[in-house]
From TrEMBL:
Molecular functions (GO terms): cellulase activity
SUPFAM superfamilies (alphabetical): Six-hairpin glycosidases
Domain Glycoside hydrolase family: residue ranges: 25-483
Active site, UniProt feature: 410
Enzyme type, top EC level: hydrolase
Keywords carried by this UniProt record: Carbohydrate metabolism, Cellulose degradation, Glycosidase, Hydrolase, Polysaccharide degradation, Signal
Protein name stated in the entry: Endoglucanase
GO biological process, one term: cellulose catabolic process
The reaction(s) this protein catalyses: Endohydrolysis of (1->4)-beta-D-glucosidic linkages in cellulose, lichenin and cereal beta-D-glucans
Similarity remark: Belongs to the glycosyl hydrolase 9 (cellulase E) family.
Protein EC: 3.2.1.4
Signal peptide: 1-21
Amino acid sequence: MLRFSLLGAFALAMMMVFVDSQHDYADALTKSILFFEGQRSGKLPPTQRMTWRKDSALEDGFYLHTNLVGGYYDAGDNVKFNFPMAFTTTMLAWSVIEFGNDMGSDYQHALEAIRWATDYFLKCTRIPNILFVQVGDPYGDHDCWERPEDMDTPRTAYAVSAKHPGSEVSGEIAAALAASSLAFKSVDAPYSKALLDRAVMVFKFADTYRGSYNDSLGKWVCPFYCDFNGYEDELVWAATWLYKATNAAEYIKYVRDNIYSISNISTSSTNGGSIGEFGWDAKHAGINVLVSEMTGNKEEPFSSNAGRLVCALLPESPTKWVEYSPGPSFLNPLSGGCNMQHPTALSFLLLVHGRSLDSTKSTISCDFGTTTPSRLIQVAKSQVDYILGTNPAGMSYMVGYGNKFPEFIHHRGSSLPSIDQHPERIGCRDGDPYFASKSPNPNVLTGAVVGGPLINDTYSDSRVDSVQSEPATYINAPLVGVLAYFKSNSR
């Protein structure tokens, strides 16, 4: 009785926080999507709203007689890393699929954000059995502090192939293309079909020529975006999205046949292992939630694993797998940084699974009691509110939202004067004084969510502290869907 009384007090306290911390989710949604315009590479369109950004990297791939212009810079640097970019695209597409009806006028901008990536991925995958997975020498790029518009570091293009495979990055690109085909299905059928056809081709390549791009490309992808979880989860993830996009039995069979090859995904443990992982490198939790949603929470082991995910995340769980700060905010103990990627990605899964359970009038039995769909949604809301300013620091971790937000983010384009203000070229090391400046960044990267605070809720608003102050596309992407939901369902 004492345990449940304490839990009841905890829930009441959480509810009081929710009542007292209403945020403008519509404004945050608009800004979270606008952020992607600040990360664009290539020839910017006349509709570009973040006008301090200009054209950049207009000759990517040309030395190989191929066009690789476009796509996104992943974070505060000027490299195009396709592995996290593909996950970003998958999550933007999933956000539109699940919550597009809640986006209002931002719906079109969300589609534009997806298309900026998928147009680029179509270029990267046009040659059979050759797939470009990165553009830009990461060492040369990271040695400079210069605007993307000025960069003169090597724009080396890296590819995987039949002889030098990369199943994780290929699988994630296939997932991104398949998910995006669903996002465009009702608004641009020919484009949707083109994306799906390419997804099928890329998945076949990823599955036929198996291997990690860690081995194929070595130091060019590591330590930046190494695959630590193996490539099997991306293959199953891609097959799951292809099943959702095609309803073809071969893909769900592939998922069922290969699910047990993924380390720990079917573990019977309530916590630990890969059940609670979801991000650019680990798709385990996402697979369980997506399959459960598609099959009405009746397919095993997916349904039970999705339940274990929930039980391992809730703050009242005595065996929770994540660590909560006093805020509280999610923190994955396996992470080495970029903490905000966890509350955004995991909140998205809690929200999707919570709605799915509600549609089937289901609950979840955890070791500590029964959990309802509304509790999942409540916890997701607490994470969003934390990001937007309901935290001990009273700071919004979304740039441009609220009265207090990060002003010294680790981001080259934001920290250097724009071409409008400084038309002359700023060379590789010419940006050093701006990096060391005690003045706020001159260009506001509106909507960017930074890496975030430490486990004790402290945040260092410093360009030097990239772990805390650097934004990333894969932080924002799942947040888009979550914000869209709470825009329409804020109470």
